[in-house]
Amino acid sequence: MKMSIQQLFRPDVLAMQAYHVADASGYIKLDAMENPYHLPAALRQELGQQLAEVALNRYPDPHGDGLKDLLKAAFAIPDAADVVLGNGSDEIITLITQAVASDDTVVLALEPSFVMYRLNAQFSRVRYVGVPLQADFSLDLPATLAAIREHRPAVVFLSYPNNPTGPRFAREEVQAVLDAAPGLLVVDEAYQAFADDSFMGLAGSQPHLIVMRTLSKLGLAGLRLGYAAGHPEVIAQLDKVRPPYNINVLSQAAAKFALRHLDVFAAQAAELRSERSRIAASLATLPQVTVYPSEANFLTIRVPDALALFAQLKAEGILIKNLHGYHPLLDNCLRLTVGSPDENSALLAAIHAYFA
Ligand SMILES: *Cc1c(COP(=O)(O)O)cnc(C)c1O
Q1: For residues 300 and 208, what is the distance between their CA atoms, to the nearest angstrom?
Q2: Can you tell me which atom of ligand 1 is nearest the CA of 215?
Q3: Nearest-CA neighbor of 217 among 252, 196, 197, 191?
Q4: b/e for 149-166, b at 16 or more Cβ within 10 A?
Q5: Which residue out of 85, 89, 187, 251 has the highest number of ligand 1 atoms within 8 Å of its CB and is therefore the one to mutate?
Q6: Rounded CA gap, 284 and 202, in Å?
Q7: Which ligand 1 atom lies nearest to the CA of residue 221?
Q8: Whose CA is nearest to atom 1 of ligand 1?
Q9: Whose CA is nearest to atom 5 of ligand 1?
Q10: Where's the Aminotransferase class I/classII large domain (predicted)?
Q11: Is the CB of residue 231 less than 8 Å from the CB of residue 206?
Q12: Binding pocket residue ranges, ligand 1, CB within 6 Å
């Protein structure tokens, strides 16, 4: 007798909803923290020529050593640190969780934050502890330290700045978490290009610290390239659970190309930061809107009726992210990805018209 689907798959998997990505065709797409810009035409042509030379018949360089050296130089990764590459930083979260998972392992994260921390804990069957942020989305240090003492997590995940809320936590408080955590602290710096601070300088010298980043929010979400820097002995363990050829040859070649043209992406990030200020200032003039400070390429806002505004923007062809219903602290919150100046102006016009 064949097993039925119900018999075959884990109850928690059967009960899950698949990760939902909205169909965005035809919309102004401000829902997924993507960089709005395609590569400039001249660079596209050069990239095309370089990719045409890539040996697709060969397996990729399993260690990505050339790419790691370029990443270390481009992003000031300390010499004391080693680097592991992931198929997006999503995969690095998976590697870290798998490498620590055993019967009594606990993974801890702040909430609301990036859902993959919790989902990976579930997939690896480790106990997950979520510690709520404060109402203004700052870190609740006493509650976090108490939870660390009580649960002794093998890993604490902390997004710096935090998605989906926007602010960066106080550096001293993150340092206090690092000092108190018995296990690893993963500082997820997915939004580093838009932020004013980083823990990268400590990578390698603080054995329990892993600093994780991605090229996605910088403008290369389609490449799927994440990286994490940490103490060589820690990175060596992650490397053992990494699928040997996780970064394909085209992604390795395209990432090397992009790192040689980092000035293009840095200029775009600078423009997005200044657009972020423009949107925040414009929305702050509306008494119905609370704008949370952000060091990412999105702004989280709270309005009287998030679903109504979300629906109105969608009807006008603008797709943003509804956060209402994800966590009690996100009641009536929406997340606006910073787009191109034209896209942002369309967004602002629609929101102002809605409240007029
Ligand atoms: C977007 C995001 C990631 C995932 O990035 P990828 O490299 O595209 O997988 C990781 N962490 C946070 C906090 C993010 O917002």
Answers
A1: 31
A2: 7
A3: 191
A4: eebebbbbbbbbbbbbbb
A5: 89
A6: 36
A7: 8
A8: 190
A9: 89
A10: 27-351
A11: yes
A12: 33, 88-90, 114, 159, 163, 188, 190, 214, 216, 221, 226
* Both tokens assigned to 22: 């909205």
- The Cα 63–Cα 245 span in angstroms is 8
For residue range 225-269, list pLDDT tens digits in order.
Answer: 999 999 999 999 999 999 999 999 999 999 999 999 999 999 999
> How far, in Å, is the centroid of ligand 1 from the Cα of 89?
6
13-67 pLDDT, tens digit each: 999 887 777 778 889 999 999 999 989 999 999 999 999 999 999 999 888 779 9
| SS (HEC) of 78-140 | CCCCEEEEECCHHHHHHHHHHHHCCCCCEEEEEECCCHHHHHHHHHCCCEEEEEECCCCCCCC
Residue type, 284: A
Side-by-side strand order, sheet with 321-322: 290-291, 298-302, 333-337, 321-322
Q: Could you give the domains of the chain?
A: 5-41+263-355 (3.90.1150.10), 57-260 (3.40.640.10)
